Amino acid sequence: MSDYQLALQQLTDSALPTGAFAHSLGFETYIDAGVVVDEGSFGVWLSAFVGQSLSYSDGLAIRFLYEGADVGELDALLSASLLPRQVREASTKMGLRLLEIGTDVFPSAELARYRDLVTSGGAAGHQPLAFAVVARSLGVPLSEALSAYLFAAVTSLTQNAVRAIPLGQNAGQRLLRKASDDVAAAVGRIAHLTPDDFGAVSPGLEISQMRHERQRARMFMS
Predict the structure, then answer these.
(1) Of 32, 96, 125, 209, which sits 20 to 30 A from 102 (CA to CA)?
(2) Angle, CA 54 vertex, CA 53 and CA 55 arms, to 5°
(3) Tens digits of per-residue pLDDT, 193-210?
(4) Is the pTM of this model over 0.85?
């Protein structure tokens, strides 16, 4: 086993206290509208979310950081591209928690510089960048880091859907198995994207995320 494997499992464990359990990242709006109602319809939403929103924002930011892009510039790009306020705040809330956890458990000079930039107000502290800084400092290869990050997001969203729709636990596991193919496809796609692709969105997903802020009743923060 590589030296970083156990650390990566800890970093992506669903029990890591970043607050992911409090966010639907827009699927709760589709539940309220009667569009996401069961295993099949949530699977369609999840596949679209991984292949579009996550690939062109979080996934691409992770790749660019690994390739040497400035973390402060990437942080500003994420803040500008995540237009729905709740999603932007979710990214920074979970990112700030990850920065705190990483500083205590996986300290590095690179992580300290990013946290200092955030503390001084020079950056917002987005989750994918905090993850990428920690993963790179641990020696995790880019492809493994991307796969782990995307699948961790899929896992938390599926767990939230099991509670919210609700779905059975077996349905959740079937969804995760199917989503692993979507994650693999997304990792392959991200490798060939260009800076011009950064922040590309699916309008339907983004509009649902914006509408969630004014939803009459909700379980999640985003």
Answers:
(1) 209
(2) 95
(3) 999 999 888 888 888 888
(4) yes
Structure tokens at 84: 């729905």
Residue 97 CB: number of other CB atoms within 10 A? Answer: 18
Query: Do 25 and 222 touch, CB atoms closer than 8 A?
Result: yes
Residues in the chain: 222
Burial annotation 30-56 (CB, 10 A radius, 16+ → b, else e): bbbeeebeebebbbebbbebbbbbbbb
Domain ranges of the chain: 20-212
Q: What is the DSSP string of the chain?
A: --TTHHHHHHHH-TTSSSSGGG--TTHHHHHHTTS--SHHHHHHHHHHIIIIIIIIIIIHHHHHHHTT--HHHHHHHHHHH--SHHHHHHHHHHHHHHHHHHHHHS--HHHHHHHHHHHTTS----HHHHHHHHHHHTT--HHHHHHHHHHHHHHHHHHHHHHHTT--HHHHHHHHHHHHHHHHHHHHHHTT--GGGTT---HHHHHHHHHHTT-SS-SS--
CATH 1.10.4190.10 for domain 20-212, yes or no, is: yes
Query: pLDDT, tens digit, for every residue of 118-133?
Result: 999 999 999 999 999 9
